[in-house]
Amino acid sequence: MKNILIFGDSLTAGYGLPASQAYPSLLQEQLRQEGYTEYKVLNGGLSGDTTAGGVHRIDRWLNEPISIFILALGANDGLRGIPARETTQNLQEILNKVRHAYPEAKFILSGMEIPDIVPGRYAAEFRKLFRELALENNIHFIPFLLEGVAGNRHLNLPDGVHPNAEGQKILAKHTWSKLKELI
C-alpha cells in the first residue's frame, strides 16, 4: 500500500460529521472508483490544531511510510492571529520533518485564507505565506482549500465555520484536482 497522509485540523478531521463524510474518506472512495486501489488515505486531522501543535504531532505519523503528504494546517493560526512568520516557520518545519523521513514523498500544500474584512495587513500576509511556501519548496499547491465553501451557509454546519457533508465534497474536489497529478 502507498499511504497518502492528509495532515490538518478540524477541516480534515471532518468536525461534526461521521468520519465517512470527511474529505479524506471521500478521496479514498474516489481513488477506489478510479482504480487506484494501492493507495490508502490516512486522516491526520485534529480539531483545534495549530501549526505549532502540528510540529510536535507530526512525529508520531512518521512511523507510517508516506508516499504523498498533504499539509492542510493553518486555519486556526489565522483565527487566532498568530504572526504569519511563526506560521510559516512551523509549516516549513513540518515539511522538513516529512521530507527528511521520506525524501521520495510527493507534497501538496493546502492554502488557507482569512477574510479581507480583518483589519490591517494580516489577511494579505496570511494568504501570501502559503503561496510563498509552496514556491520555495517547489510543491503542488491548492490556493484556498475552502474556496466556494467559506461564508456559504448552505455548505457549512450551523457554526458557520466547519463544512457540512456537501462542503466536504468541495474540499475533496479541490484536493483531488492536485492529487490526481501525483498518482
UniProtKB/TrEMBL annotation:
<dbReference type="InterPro" id="IPR051532">
    <property type="entry name" value="Ester_Hydrolysis_Enzymes"/>
</dbReference>
<dbReference type="GO" id="GO:0006629">
    <property type="term" value="P:lipid metabolic process"/>
</dbReference>
<dbReference type="Pfam" id="PF13472">
    <property type="entry name" value="Lipase_GDSL_2"/>
</dbReference>
<dbReference type="InterPro" id="IPR013830">
    <property type="entry name" value="SGNH_hydro"/>
</dbReference>
<dbReference type="InterPro" id="IPR036514">
    <property type="entry name" value="SGNH_hydro_sf"/>
</dbReference>
<dbReference type="InterPro" id="IPR008265">
    <property type="entry name" value="Lipase_GDSL_AS"/>
</dbReference>
<feature type="domain" description="SGNH hydrolase-type esterase">
    <location>
        <begin position="6"/>
        <end position="170"/>
    </location>
</feature>
<protein>
    <submittedName>
        <fullName>Arylesterase</fullName>
    </submittedName>
</protein>
<dbReference type="GO" id="GO:0004622">
    <property type="term" value="F:phosphatidylcholine lysophospholipase activity"/>
</dbReference>
